[in-house]
Amino acid sequence: MAEIYISLGTNIDRDFHVKQGLDALSHYFGELRLSSLFESEAIGFDGSAFYNLVVGLSTILSVEDVVATLRKIEVANGRSLQSKKFSPRTLDLDLLLYDELVLESPAQIPRDEITTNAFVLWPLSQIAPQLKHPTMHLSYGQLWKEYDHASQELKILPLNWKSKSE
């Protein structure tokens, strides 16, 4: 079983799409480990604030199958595959880590955003503080501790989601 971490973000009908994304991830992958829910300003474009969180889970699927499943969930939730990188999103699911793999295709793993965006690093450090970045060899807890917290403002919000199996 591979241990993977996925970033979930949305800035369109945020409560609805967080629930839809988590329901779909639970359906395809089973038990989920969730960070807090964060609100952050849009980065790279003028747009409404995002909700973000990181999901950890175990899977027997290959990297390729995980990426395909994440795209399938995004499209089912109204995401256009032709949308620009910096644009509003119904649902954005990015594979951050797949065990200790380092890849550029079919996805960049580990994703650069882990160390550049607080809305990825802080939630990842919550659910995997001792896990080490596969190329930097520092734990996510340590990376968060050393991060410039003033560079991006985040607000923790209540996450009101329950798995259908609970």
What does this structure look like?
The structure is a single chain. The chain is an alpha+beta fold and 166 residues long. The protein has a single domain, classed as 2-Layer Sandwich (Alpha-Beta Plaits). Helix content is 31%, strand content 22%. The protein has five helices and six strands. Strands 1, 2, 3, 4, 5 and 6 form a six-stranded antiparallel β-sheet that branches. It is globular. The model has no long low-confidence stretch (mean pLDDT 92).
What does the secondary structure layout of this molecule look like, with pairings?
Layout: E1 2-10, H1 14-29, E2 33-34, E3 37-40, E4 50-59, H2 63-76, E5 92-98, H3 113-116, H4 118-127, H5 140-146, E6 154-157
Antiparallel strand pairs: 1-4, 1-5, 2-4, 3-4, 3-6
Entry summary:
By secondary structure, this protein is of the alpha+beta class. 31% of the residues lie in helices and 22% in strands.
Structural key phrases:
single chain; 166 residues; Alpha-Beta Plaits; 5 helices; 31% helix; globular
CATH domain topology:
Alpha-Beta Plaits
**Percentage of residues assigned to helices:** 25-40%
**How many individual domains?**
1
By secondary-structure content and strand pairing, the structural class works out as alpha+beta
CATH architecture: 2-Layer Sandwich
Number of helices: 5
Main sheet specs: 6 strands, antiparallel
Unreliable stretches: none
Percentage of residues in strands? 15-25%
